[in-house]
Design brief:
This protein is an alpha+beta fold. It has one domain: Immunoglobulin-like (Sandwich). The chain has an eight-stranded mixed beta sheet with strand order 1-3-6-5-4-7-8-2, with no helix packed on it. β7 and β8 form a beta hairpin. It is globular. The N terminus is likely disordered.
């Protein structure tokens, strides 16, 4: 009976572990910022092991943001020098840059 319970636990653990490891951005704070200001990117699994970089992106370019601090639930970045306008947040996972459906406005 002990072997059956152990088999079920082992079969269950990998499925849950895979889902927990995927980084996901759920929002930014504040949603309106100026160049050089701090921006907090909130989400899940945002550690250095999962997210190598954060970008402010428009339809044609990805501008790297300087990471100030990084933890599982948030990354604090410095907004890069970009023109005023609306942007998406993107994260670098391995060698891929993934545009997230999170918008922010950069003001002059």
């Amino acid at each position: 009976m002990g072997l059956v319970v152990m088999g079920v636990a082992v079969a269950w653990m990998p499925a849950g572990a895979g889902a927990q490891g995927s980084p996901r951005v759920t929002g930014v704070e504040p949603v309106t910022v100026k160049v050089g200001a701090s921006l907090t990117v909130k989400g899940e699994n945002l550690t250095k092991d999962n997210v190598a970089g954060v970008f402010v992106s428009n339809s044609s370019d990805d501008f790297p943001a300087k990471i100030v601090s990084q933890a599982a639930a948030k990354i604090v970045v410095e907004v890069p020098k970009v023109k005023a306008g609306d942007y998406n947040i993107s994260i670098q996972v391995k060698s891929d840059i993934l545009i997230q459906p999170i918008r922010l406005t950069v003001q002059e």
